[in-house]
Amino acid sequence: MNFGDHVREVHARGALVVQPRMGMADPALMRAGLEAVERADADTVGTITLDSYTRTGDLESVRAALRDGVGLNGYPIVTYPAAVTRGVVAGLAERGFPVQVRHGSARPLHIFGALLDAGLHATEGGPVSYCLPYGRTPLDESVRNWEASCELAAEYAAERGVRPHLETFGGCMLGQLCPPSQLVAISVLEAVFFHGLGIRSLSLSYAQQTDAEQDAEAIRALRALAGQLLPDADWHVVVYAYMGVYPRTVAGANALLAAAARLAVDTGSERLIVKTSVESSRIPTVQHNVDALEYAAAVARDRRRQLAGPDAPPAAPADGTDSQVYREAAALVAAVLDGVGSGGVGGALVGAFKRGLLDVPYCLHPDNAGRSRSYLDEAGRLCWAELGGVPLQGIAPVRPGRRITSGDLTKALCHVQDRFDAVALDRGADRPVGAAEHEILEGKPA
Amino acid sequence: MSGPTNGTAGGAGTVARPAAPLPAQRSAGPVPPRGTVVVSSMASDAHTWNLVFLQLLIEELGFEVVNLGATVPDEMLLAECRERGPALLVLSSVNGHGYHEGLRVIRRLRADADLAGLPVLIGGKLGITGGESAEHIEELLGAGFDAVFDDRPEGIAAFTGLLGRLSERQAHELR
In the prediction, which pLDDT does B128 show? Predict the structure, then answer.
């Protein structure tokens, strides 16, 4: 079954799909990891995360590492024969456990070829989100390679009668300190890019940021814009548990994951990608992942029950368009789509970054203008400090210029970590913490 | 060097934070540049918050910073260092390949006639099992690194101390 259909089916019966990030170099260990995730007490889908040499196309280093027995930090799907990967995933999709390949490549054509050869059809990324934050591939080259990759997937689909599924990674952009409206805009624009290349089964990502209310606004804005711009596609929303500097305490990490699970349920999101309780210190084991999946699923179940019960908080407006995040995101999307010419959405994205209409704060990529800045306001909401050329004058409030120091940056980057570790360590004595959060910290979810 | 880092598609996030508050800028007025420091990742590492943090920190210590960004190929790193003649090269790796990549890169730097004498530091999260063995650190130093900072909170304080001494020496040489 198609990845998107599976997620939709789980959502229709009232559950949240939860998914890990997981990649092992050894095929037997990869298979064992997938089976452990499948067995978890949760509605899971599987992940094969690729190693970073494969991501950058340095296949010689993959071969050397495999030959010398040096560890790889993921599954080298391009280097193994397709038969090996088919063995790793054999029978899983057929028994209702679809597997997605996660890679991080700005030039994924070789990866698309390998995963399609192995009979896999679900992957993720995007020409902007896997280019600007992680490397130095020119943006126009990434766009061309992603165009070719999507065309390959669409061709394969036509030949074999399956529908490939693509998830945007645009809701993450550096993991933290990108204003939510720009995350929403890039996620939507990448989905429109995929759609224009013939991909009809899509998911749009949004990564949990610093403020739960602002995040809920952002996800509702994402749904509203996807509804307007992808009317004939099958799409769902995937929430990423916080992608920034993670709490160091187990209780803090769990509280942050619980907040992500509640955010997903509150916003009607269909899928959640979890982080583990050891995120801040090490690469998680399979068991850490299984624990995180089961915990997130339990929190989501409880939240759903709570929302259906007599103590439910007031329901959010069904229409996601009446918010600051929506107004900003809609303006950004419109500004970029205004530039669509013969180069399509891909060309418009390249043009938008060149003109600084999209500009990711603190992104070092040569094709990012680097004139915008962001900061956390007193309440912990993520805001624009400087717009540069981003066309939100009169729409987004900005803070008068003040130089950001390394200390400011550390503080902003560690804001979520500090907040959740403090909640865990002092039980929130000097700060307002919701009753549900207390109970989670005490180990008895509401 | 490791600053705050974020998790990405490929690996776990990590963080090394200063044990003490970061030093403030030395003076309110403009600080005369004390030379150029090249900050760089290595070929396989896509993390950048560590590099942004290091750039701000080193600038605050009075140096001009050329930040080469993420996934820098060896050839580009060598070419940039030859062209710019920096006072110092700071390599930061947090994706778990730092030990192996660091050995490869420092051997190439030390084998290059123009760069054999360049001061080079490396830091971050260098292995994939968490925590550097003393043996790995010795090996990196033996291969030609001038200092190795592992993934502990003391790392940043030691690093700023070392840069302070470097800038004093340079100021002395300029006089």
Answer: 55
User: CA A34 to CA A193: how far, in whole Å?
Assistant: 30
d(CA A290, CA A39): 9
Counting other chains too, the contacts that A406-409 makes at CB distance below 8 Å and 24 or more residues apart are A406/B3, A406/B22, A406/B53, A406/B56, A406/B57, A406/B60, A407/B21, A407/B22, A407/B24, A408/A375, A409/A362, A409/B4, A409/B52, A409/B53, A409/B56
Q: Which residues of A touch B9 (CB under 8 A)?
A: 21, 49, 55, 102-104, 130, 134, 169
Q: How far apart are CA A248 and CA A282, in angstroms?
A: 11
H-run or E-run covering A184: helix A180-196
d(CA A164, CA B112): 48
Cβ contact, residue pair A279, B7, below 8 Å: yes
Residue A217 lies in a domain: yes
**Closest C-alpha to B123, from B157, B88, B159:** B159
Residue A123 near residue A101 (C-beta atoms within 8 A): yes
What is the rounded distance in angstroms from the CA atom of residue A18 to the CA atom of residue A40?
10
Looking at the structure of chain A, the number of domains it has is 1
Q: Is residue A423 part of a domain?
A: no
Chain A residues within 8 A of B3 when measuring between CB atoms? 406, 410
Give the three-class secondary structure for A238.
Answer: strand
Cβ–Cβ of A50/B10 closer than 8 Å? yes
Tokens 């998680």 belong to residue = A284
ipTM, two decimals, is 0.77
Evaluate whether residue A360 is within a structural domain: no
Weakest mean pLDDT among A271-280, A334-343, A415-424, B123-132:
B123-132
Nearest-CA neighbor of B44 among A170, A112, A76, A109? A76
Percent of chain A exceeding pLDDT 70 equals 95
Tokens 């010689």 belong to A60
What is the length of chain B?
A: 175
Residue ranges making up the domain that contains A155: 3-308
- Beta carbons of B17 and A283 less than 8 Å apart: no
Assigned domain for A376 exists? no
pLDDT of residue B172: 58
Residues contacting A354, CB < 8 A, separation 6+ = A367
Whole-prediction pTM: 0.85
Nearest to A382 by CA among A394, A397, A365: A397
> What distance in Å separates residue A310's CA from the closest CA in chain B?
39
Question: Residue A29: which CATH number?
Answer: 3.20.20.240
Secondary structure of A354-386 in HEC code, one letter for each residue: HHCCCCCCCCCCCCCCCCCEEEECCCCCEEEEE
Beta strands in A298-413 (DSSP E): 373-376, 382-386
For CA atoms A120, A125, A126, A130, the dihedral sign is negative
Whether residue A56 and residue B18 make contact (CB cut-off 8 A), yes or no, is no
